[in-house]
Amino acid sequence: MPRSLQQAVELALHDDWNGAHEIAQASDEVMAHWIHAVLHKIEGDEWNSRYWYRRTPHEYEEYADPKAELRAIAATLQGGE
């Protein structure tokens, strides 16, 4: 599970929104919901992003920069937080 979510983060960091979204959408894990939320933030779909944030312990306003947030997700997936 974490490996595919790490892949989703890497894809998002390399601007492959569709590839990252496909992976995040296929998982019902909380971390996938967080990734999903960030992807919709990147897309500019605030309503949908906030929907996914509500399924996590995180908030839309927690990170101003989606790339920094993706790096934080990657660190969490790797056990860095």
Helices and strands, with pairings:
Elements: H1 2-13, H2 17-25, H3 30-43, H4 46-53, H5 66-77
Structural features, described:
68% of the residues lie in helices and 0% in strands. It has 5 helices and no strands. It has helices at 2-13, 17-25, 30-43, 46-53, 66-77. α1 (2-13) packs antiparallel against α2 (17-25) and α3 (30-43) packs antiparallel against α5 (66-77). The longest helix has 14 residues, at 30-43. The protein is globular, with a radius of gyration of 11 Å. The model has no long low-confidence stretch (mean pLDDT 94).
Q: What is this entry, summarized?
A:
The chain is mainly alpha-helical and 81 residues long. 68% of the residues lie in helices and 0% in strands.
Estimated radius of gyration: 11 Å
**Structural class by helix and strand composition:** mainly alpha
**Largest sheet data:** none
Terminal Cα separation, in Å? 18 Å
Low-confidence regions: none
